[in-house]
């Protein structure tokens, strides 16, 4: 239950102590109210690590199908979940699941979802990363009323495979509603992906990773800008779980569904991870790495080969971002893999995964500056090009079908941001003036991280649908504070 409307008046302000709260060049949110972590509530150190199994997310099943379309009914409602052992926590859910279920979709086959709101606040359901008509995009002011309000969203799926996800987008309240659990997974597949022979079925596992804070009664405690005190790490809705695997290859689709925390995921023994895809699906070729960094909203599609470990091995997946003073060691722990058996494995990771669409010539260039208040007075605000979000204002007018290059700069001295554009997948051309030619940012993206002072250059083609869409920082608290703007494709 959302018990308070902290919002902007919560004192979401970055103080000068923020400089001590940033690690890894500004990957962490900058804004605890003081440099010391709050100790009230459940002590993360008291929670047994790797004592409970990480659940697999359930599949959402259609209530009807036609030759062209799958139809779903979903109810957003409060439920209880044992997130921390020994406590039942009230959470926001899609159909009673925390996190929500997985909707399996196919490119070229339409999906229609009727959402019913039984929560205590209006919501707007955004399918993050989807190429959809503006009427089904989940705009910040396109709200579903409480007490049984409904809205039907149509997803044409006229895009290639992608790792998409649902979340609330109601302006000013999305931060708290998402923190309380209103997220779900949408896996869009196509023939390009399925014919490669990658690990599939039970060996293809979506994992939603986030942080949380709990009060003494085991309830989620929400305050804006409360990064330093969200010290309990959840994987698929459980605190520090374990996951049993066979000694073979697995595909994990990692989703960062946290409000503010970034993760750099790595195996504790430093062994390689094969990155095969990101937000918008597969890379052109596999990329070998020892860690994968995800800011809020980003996704990573990886293959981990457990055949190199003997049965009985226990192996941590860790967050290797350096932590600020006052953060406990627990936030570096994510989940544990347990190799419990052998298994046959006919899956492969081909040397070539897909052919990425060519980059057409760009005819328009634009610049965007992201900035939030870093000093008192309270409350703090956040801006794009010096303006807070106003749903009555169109900030950028785009001609349908044009290809544009956007230069986006984080103008803050300490605070990190990231940048998400609705409607399109984009390509990252440059980071800090250096061309991006390989690795995690070489594929199709819809969200990109910017540390303090960084600049990225992005290219996108604005076709498919006309209408009004938003672009914003995907650190939910920053968007709630005003770091969002509107574009109209005409």
From TrEMBL:
GO terms for molecular function: copper ion binding; oxidoreductase activity. Belongs to the multicopper oxidase family. It comes from the Bacteria. Residues 80-184, 247-308, 378-489 form the Plastocyanin-like domain. Keywords: Capsid protein, Cell cycle, Cell division, Metal-binding, Oxidoreductase, Virion. One of its GO terms (biological process) is cell division. Signal peptide: none annotated. This is Multicopper oxidase with three cupredoxin domains (Includes cell division protein FtsP and spore coat protein CotA).
């Amino acid at each position: 239950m959302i018990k308070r409307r902290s919002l902007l008046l919560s004192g979401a302000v970055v103080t000068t102590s923020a400089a001590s709260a940033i690690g890894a060049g500004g990957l962490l949110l900058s804004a605890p109210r003081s440099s010391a972590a709050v100790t009230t509530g459940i002590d993360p150190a008291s929670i047994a690590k790797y004592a409970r199994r990480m659940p697999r997310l359930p599949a959402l099943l259609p209530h009807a199908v036609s030759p062209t379309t799958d139809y779903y009914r979903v109810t957003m409602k409060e439920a209880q979940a044992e997130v921390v052992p020994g406590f039942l926590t009230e959470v926001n859910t899609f159909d009673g699941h925390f996190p929500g279920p997985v909707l399996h979709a196919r490119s070229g086959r339409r999906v229609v979802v009727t959402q019913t709101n039984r929560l205590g606040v209006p919501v707007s359901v955004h399918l993050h990363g989807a190429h959809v008509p503006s009427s089904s995009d989940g705009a910040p002011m396109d709200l579903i009323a409480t007490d049984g309000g409904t809205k039907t969203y149509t997803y044409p799926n006229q895009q290639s495979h992608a790792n998409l996800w649902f979340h609330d987008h109601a302006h000013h309240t999305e931060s708290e509603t998402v923190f309380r659990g209103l997220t779900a997974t949408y896996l869009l597949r196509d023939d390009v992906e399925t014919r490669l022979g990658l690990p599939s079925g039970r060996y293809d596992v979506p994992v939603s990773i986030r942080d949380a804070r709990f009060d003494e009664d085991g309830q989620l405690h929400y305050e804006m800008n409360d990064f330093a005190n969200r010290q309990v790490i959840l994987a698929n809705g459980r605190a520090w779980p374990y996951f049993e695997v066979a000694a073979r290859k697995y595909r994990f689709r990692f989703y960062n569904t946290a409000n503010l925390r970034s993760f750099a995921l790595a195996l504790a023994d430093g062994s390689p991870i094969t990155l095969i895809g990101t937000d918008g699906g597969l890379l052109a070729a596999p990329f070998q790495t020892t860690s994968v960094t995800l800011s809020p909203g980003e996704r990573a599609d990886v293959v981990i080969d457990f055949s190199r470990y003997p049965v009985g091995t226990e192996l941590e997946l860790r967050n290797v971002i350096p932590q600020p003073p006052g953060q406990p060691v627990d936030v570096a722990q994510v989940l544990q893999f347990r190799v419990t058996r052998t298994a046959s494995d006919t899956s492969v990771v081909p040397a070539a995964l897909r052919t990425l669409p060519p980059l057409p010539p760009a005819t328009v260039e634009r610049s965007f500056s992201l900035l939030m208040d870093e000093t008192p007075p309270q409350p703090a605000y956040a801006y794009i090009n010096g303006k807070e979000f106003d749903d009555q204002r169109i900030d950028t007018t785009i001609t349908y079908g044009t290809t544009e290059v956007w230069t986006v700069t984080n103008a803050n001295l300490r605070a990190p941001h990231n940048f998400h554009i609705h409607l399109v997948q984009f390509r990252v051309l440059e980071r800090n003036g250096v061309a991006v030619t390989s690795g995690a940012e070489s594929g199709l993206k819809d969200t990109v991280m910017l540390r303090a002072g960084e600049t990225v250059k992005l290219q996108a083609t604005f076709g498919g649908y006309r209408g009004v869409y938003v672009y914003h920082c995907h650190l939910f608290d920053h968007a709630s504070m005003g770091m969002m703007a509107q574009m109209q494709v005409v």
